[in-house]
Amino acid sequence: MKFASYHDGTRDGQLWVVSRDLRSAVPATGIAPSLIAALEDWDAVAPRLGELYERLNTGNEPFATPFSPQRCLAPLPRAPQWLDASAFLNHGRLMDKAFNNPPNPDFETIPLIYQGASDDLRGPLADMEFPDESLQIDMEGEFGVVLSDVAMGTNAEDALKHVRLLVQINDWSLRGPGPREMRAGFGFLNAKPSTAFAPVAITPDELGDLWKDGRLHIHLHVWLNGKEIGRAFGGEMHFNFGDLIQHCSRTRRLSTGTIIGSGTVSNADRGAGSSCISEIRVIEILDEGAPRTPFMSFGDTVRMEARLPDASLPFGIIEQKVVKA
After folding, report:
1. Residue 308: partners with Cβ closer than 8 Å, 6 or more residues away
2. Which run of H or of E encompasses 14?
3. Model pTM greater than 0.85?
4. The dihedral of CA 89, 165, 150, 162: what is its sign?
5. What is the largest CA-CA distance in the chain?
6. Among candidate residues 244, 113, 261, the one with its CA nearest the CA of residue 187
7. Which pLDDT tens digit goes with each residue over 29-58?
8. pLDDT tens digits, 104-121
């Protein structure tokens, strides 16, 4: 199934079911008012949502209308929790090499994950406001999962049973404040503004065999100001989503609606490009001795789309412009 949240003046938006080809949609009237409400009552409402989805895909839904990404908020405009990892180790290796970071003995065994803000998650076409270009504005293309309730101490294999939905993410980052906040030891705050999402969240079965081993085996294409800079493959993720869920639930329960991100999709093959500017700059430092690609300025745009082998877009498109707050 595929879901979107249309703006309706409420904080959580109105739940709409979207057709597989993203051409039509219908409100989930009488089933669930919002996506978070559907997730919290999933066993009861999922069969009815599935019937609505089937009618929509077969052209038998009389209330169907053309799907409108322009009306979309993030699938979950606010979530109980947003946890973001760095599960593609190529990204971390590049950063460590460029900045001569000391070796991390747990690099390949314990995932890096921070807790971000989840009260203001942004839609796919929303302009992103920032107070100052000197903050070093960057984007990060990622994949993510939305969970049902997870008990403390859940192991990685069982953890994947709690994945309700898959999402595509633009995790905006401000590279200027980042080093100071990391040195302080309390984690990111100013360095991590609101995170944005593609318009559609999907159930894992929508990807068929491309969702396996707790990874999305699809490519994420990224454009900066109309120039493609990345087409990295999600299957190269070192820690899978089961590993990430296990780590996050080691000492706490995770509530329904928790979102976990993969971190920047990054491949060892340089031909795959990069999913963020910071990685491009690090490669320039390694190859040329200094960075030459600037961070984003007001008026710059980023576009992201995950593509299946048949070129279809399971999550739709993220396309955002940087503007002055």
Report:
1. 207, 210, 218, 314
2. strand 14-18
3. yes
4. negative
5. 61
6. 113
7. 999 999 999 999 999 999 999 999 999 999
8. 899 999 999 999 999 999
